[in-house]
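---------- Forwarded message ----------

FYI, see the Fis family transcriptional regulator record below. Original note from H. follows.
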Amino acid sequence: MPTSTVDLATARRYVNSARYRSLDELCGGDPQMQDLIARGKRLIDRNIPILILGETGTGKEYLSRALHAYSARRAANWVAVNCASIPESLAESELFGYCKGAFSGALPGGMKGKVQQADGGTLFLDEIGDMPFALQTRLLRVLSEREVIPLGAAHPVPVDVHLICATHQDLKTLVAQGRFREDLYYRIAGGVLRLPSLRSRTDRRALIMQMIGDEMSCADIDDSIIAPAALQRMLAYAWPGNLRQMHAVIRYCCAVMNGGRIEVGDLPEELMESFAPSTHFEGPAISPVSNVRSIVPQAGAADILPRPPGGPLGDERTRVIDALVGSRWNISAASRQLGMCRASLYRKLRQLDIPHVRDQAMPAHFASYAA
Ligand SMILES: Nc1ncnc2c1ncn2[C@@H]1O[C@H](COP(=O)(O)OP(=O)(O)OP(=O)(O)O)[C@@H](O)[C@H]1O
């Protein structure tokens, strides 16, 4: 974060680039994004609850912040809760707060819950699809009554929050499976904004240039900052981790580049491996780059763990396992490489039925990679 020794312009640039982009800055000219932002602007001040959908890393949280900053509530708090990461036992007190003496171990003065902290502002419930069912019932009550009852309190406290929820999950399927309350779904999905995946956006070039500019704290970079072949590879890449992954890749390239220009050899491994000149790149063939350090052991983990049937899930499983082995089962490093957050990677392991290396009998050479 900026400190008091940093001048205001630098601090403003930091805030602008790292955490808070305005709504208009979220789009580099992609028509789907332009349409989504225009609809978001119309919804936000009508107090209509907004549900943001999109793959992991597509910028759901960024969009929520930008909507709040655009709204009439911008002077009040924007409070985020990640429903996937609060332990179920703490979720109620986190969200609704408690009074002093509510339970042993409680703070002496009690605690305001997130809903009350967002009073007058915006409450952002991220990963709403992961909210425990019992808590969904309590949330529904808060939304319909517009009041919370902190644990141990005798009386309800009125609250006025604008609700923005986000998820990468298909909530309608969760409803059909009985895992998400239908009445809550209709209450939170007043206006649905579906963020496009990065690979389907036509403004990838503008985003790359914007991120490089941010990374170098320089607003007026030009095309000479990146070699045409490196840019082509970035444009041809599928970006499974979306904006999060692109941001991580740009940071990496800016850190390793030498000589003021990002070259093909500065790209991280995943961009080199996935590149197939015959299918993606219209231009002179690019020879494989030999100076890319391989972090994946020669015997691929995908050959060691039992393979699922082929098809897209099998490919994804191989990609995830290779990232895990390459990072020696360091979940933070593997999730960075895959362009997803740790919680998403743990979810992916469950979904793809990949047991953690700690939990299985592994061949000695493979298990030795475990962190
Ligand atoms: N417009 C943007 N410009 C630059 N970087 C961005 C932008 N949007 C997102 N990012 C990068 O992507 C990361 C993920 O963004 P965000 O948390 O908003 O995505 P998300 O869809 O909420 O992810 P998840 O589904 O994993 O919660 C950010 O931390 C940032 O690094």
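H. also flagged this: The pocket of adenosine-5'-triphosphate is lined by residues 21, 26, 54, 56-62, 126, 168, 211, 243-244, 247, 341, 344 (CB under 6 Å).
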